[in-house]
Records
---
Amino acid sequence: MTGERSADPADEPLDDIVDEARRILARAAARSVPLKLVGGLAIRLHSMEPPRGGLVREFKDIDLATPRKRDREVASFIVSLGYSSDDTFNAMNAGRRALFYDVSHKRQLDIFVGGFEMCHAVPIVDRFEVDSETVPLAELLLTKLQIVELNEKDLRDILALLVEHEVGDHDAETVNAAYVGKLCAEDWGLWRTCKMNIERARTGLEHFDLSGEDRRVLAQRLDSLWSGIETAPKSRSWKMRDRIGDRLRWYQEPEEID
């Protein structure tokens, strides 16, 4: 069941999805609505103009995050911008996730409430104020690295983020490898999937139309990222889970949404 949408023609989603994401963020900031962009569009906002040709991809959906207990306010705000609410899904997933639709452009808008849970849980709202428009780069990267069945689109996003940003131990337009390492040191499953996808990214570099310098930079940053993950002191629960290894499935099957 789909709910009501705004009747004001001035509040209609824009044709260009990147411009539409910026419109939502600008309106949210003006009204003090707590929303940050997640996913491929968030990475696009952190990329150069125009992005490197070998990493360009199309965007079909808009993903956002909001803290807990503000989801009703956020839902009303999204509807006011010309979106239709999926009332059935939103009632069943209240306090966790919400779906809205831009019917005219056949686009979906997904809001993660209080956190991010797909193959693994990533605490994307714990450091909500680090970046003005998106979740922090470290968490943004982890939402891609946590995907067990990584596809080419998600691999492009990983490389697009890393080719534009250094890997270090802070968040100022830098991927905070120390924070990524801390989260992986507390969750063996997340560590295992990140290890798998960093290796996939290394071996996949040759499949994209990138300069030799870009490939060199990406290889170095992937190595730095993995070093930050590997050197982080592991928790007791991590060490206990490590003894079991791959004999037990270490990830969740993400929910499929039509």
---
Amino acid sequence: MKRHLWALSAAALLSSVSFAAMAQEGLSIPPPAVDEAAAAAATETAVLAGGCFWGVQGVYQHTKGVLNAVSGYAGGSEATAVYEIVGGGVTGHAEAVKITYDPKQISYGKLLQIYFSVAHDPTQLNRQGPDTGTQYRSTVFPQSAGQAKIAKAYIDQLDAAKIYSADIATTVEPDKAFYPAEDYHQDYLTLHPTQPYIVYNDLPKIENLKKLFADDYRDDPALVSEAPVSN
């Protein structure tokens, strides 16, 4: 279902309320046992996919230490990195978010902890809430061998601890380019806070971030409109 055509029929409303209710419970999880060492670089990047990029972007825009979070596509080619094409589910792309962060303020492991805790449900295979298809899959796109090691170790850690009621479905896909999404997708949660999809599926994620990661929460989001979009 294309989200901009998402209508609140009785069935859609019930489905969305149910998902929102699940999200509102939140999930407290332990931090990763393996994390990156403090980096000398001024900035680092992470690329994460967890369903609709509107909500994932919104979560990280409200995370301290994040300098920019851009909605886009990863996993496929540049030629098919177009919303209408990606929506067909055959491009290899996943809706993803490129996060530029200050490693002196927040670590890659902390970003992953937020990802697996409040940004999405990592046990859902090729879907999130009302959205279905491989373009909504749960995927970490590591930007280095170190990130890949941390992500894989954390998935194993969480599965071994039986944190969730099902195994984690998140894939780790290295060496994939990221392509920014169309301008109208950027800062969507902030610009459209009363849009029904945002209200039922994404605003609970922001509340969970504030509740479960109070020390990492920032009230004023880091908006794309206030920072340059770069590949």
---
Amino acid sequence: MIGWIIFAIIVVIFLFAGLRVIDQYEQGVIFTLGKYSGIKMPGLNYVFPIIQRMVRVDLRVRTLDIQKQQVMTKDNVPIDVNGVVFFKVHKVQDAIIKVQDYQYAIAQYSQTALRDVIGGMTLDTLLTERQHVGEEIQKIVDKETDQWGLDVQVIKLQDIEVPDDLKRIMSRQAAAEREKRANIIKSEGDRDAAKNLAAAAETMSKSNGAMQLRTLQTLDGLGPTASNTVVLALPVEVMQFFQNFSKK
């Protein structure tokens, strides 16, 4: 009798030992006597102890850092750059069976792809088209890691560090470029102002009394300040009268 009780207890323990609860964001890869035998879906599942083994795989999007490394650009500028990879597992059996450690594998492959892509670009292209560079790296990594059951969502470049002496050169170049644009804008403004003044002078020369009216407007704009000194010249018509009189 006691033997049957002990046997029943062992059976109950054996049955409860095989119960597994898989979360909604997970799947379980089952190996029976070392061979792949199926996938367990979220919920309550049973795995035969000793005979079977289950490996849980997280299906959520994961973030993986690409360690900072020094890369030589196409124009021979040494830079330090790092990035971040967003990926998820879409085939759990491939991620477990075909690669030993898929997180380490994708990190190493991303570093290699980053070095290859940046090595074929100039520094100016890298600084102005960071998103495009990340997309190129993502295409390469996603194509190669698809056979591992991984789906690379996006790769972003985080920090791009250039040598200090090059930073100073770039700063002086940017300042010179800004000064150049300011001078161009000022010269264009002076040109437009000169055209407008010439057009206004031509218009006023054709209208009788326009110059006197402009003079009165200018005097009115000076205000009643005692420190202002106003010198009035003879009107244009008076000057023309004396010129015509002297010719007679």
---
Amino acid sequence: MGFRADRCAGMSGRRPPQTTEDLIAPLRTRRWLSEARRKSLHLASLILPLWILYQPLPWPHSKRAWVALILSLTAIALTIDVIRVNDDRTRRGFKRFFGEMIREHEAFSLLGSTYLLIAAWLALELFPRPLAAAALGFTILGDGFAALVGKAWGRRRFFHKTLEGAAGGLIACLLWAVFLVSAGHLTWPVALAGALVASLVELLPIPLDDNLGMTLISGYVMRQLWMGQ
């Protein structure tokens, strides 16, 4: 009887319930650890929107000063990228130093960090400072956690992304929205709209780098709601 019950359970197609070890196992793979090293730098850039919000240093404070700083950093990043893309020795040096942290498509194009600086510069030019910081936070956290969750547990494909990864990015964006509202930087409608729009842009196959698309589109939507309050 026991054998028959086990056989029937196996034939039913039901998978045994996952244990904690099963859930943690993907986090030990080389593929996920490589993505985690890459995204650790991306997530560390959260210091930028926090710096914009709280301005702990004597400089920069004005919008002009912020734009000057970010534009200078962007110019430096662009210069390095142009040299890297066009000089074989520099490109090989980057590859040896950063290894798998540089994606294949970045070998002959701008790095994600450069796109993020461009997004920060444009956001500061186009939006009020709290909205620029909010949009950058949605981009950094949403894109970062979408990639980490998708690499670990992504199963259901949607275009070139996974729904599990999108859910992870959405949760990260919602937590950032809660922080922004709790700290008094934004209202609930503005913050939630930014979180939802940024998550949607990350999921959809929009022909624009996520750092640019998520920041600019979510910032634009938030600005429309901000101005209507």
